[in-house]
Amino acid sequence: MIKNLAIFILSLIAAACSPRQDSDQETINKDDAFRASIKTGAFVKLSTGYTYYEFANPAADTLLVMVHGFSVPSYIWDSTFNAAVKRGYATLRYDTYGRGYSDNPDVVYDVALFSQQLSELLDSLHINRPANLMGLSDGGRTITAFAFQYPQRVRYLIYVDAAGFENLPPKDSTASLMVTEEEIHAFKQSERYQTMASGQLGDFLDSTRFRGWDKKYQEVMKYKGFVRALISTNKHRSNLENEHRRIAASGIPVIAFWGEHDKVVKLEDIRANLVDRLPDAELFVIPKAGHLPHMEQAAMFNSILFDQVICCER
Question: pTM above 0.90?
């Protein structure tokens, strides 16, 4: 299940098998000068570091919060964010720790960290009304943890090709909590590291319309601490079955979008768990789309999202 993520983990273990010259791409510190150079959005200092965010139409009644996935930061929401802003919704997106413009602290990257970051961000922006939470891929894990902790802060829970429904093996209790320099060095020598940018094109069924997507990702890889954050996130994945069942019992409406041809989080692999844990979830399968249906089939996705879901009380 979630084979690409499993392959990522295996590559960390096998990375040192074929030594090569370390081609470390991480050259940029996210310091005050770096933050001053960013001309979009804004930064807020939270308990674990600075968080980058964009918040449009803050006075609007209906709020949509977008949480990105494993490694591509909040620009992955461009098409949905812009559509929501154009429709007049209060719309918030941000970079999670270790990704994009937000800080890359040397901490344990788990769902508790990401849920806390989201809670603190909403508090810092004085957002008290319930939000429509959207979680893409690994962002699905974040919004699950958040809804489990703060059900009163959620209006709709909207999964987009979400991680978190897989059955994970028991954790190794002897493994180090923190990421070692040896792990980082080994991964930066691996073939996986060399092809991370080009590999982003595999998220699409047809990447023809998304030329330059891999080049944009190369910029993300330049920030110091990026690889450490990814390794830590993989080390600290946890089963979320209990959280899903509590969400179902809470009565929070759940929507799930899935690209019909997603090869990253295959619907056929997790459908049984999705239906079992969240039996009232409404599922929309988007045809002719891979892992990013909100991009490949933006018109269809937006029509469902805005005209059938968050527009209407249920």
Answer: yes
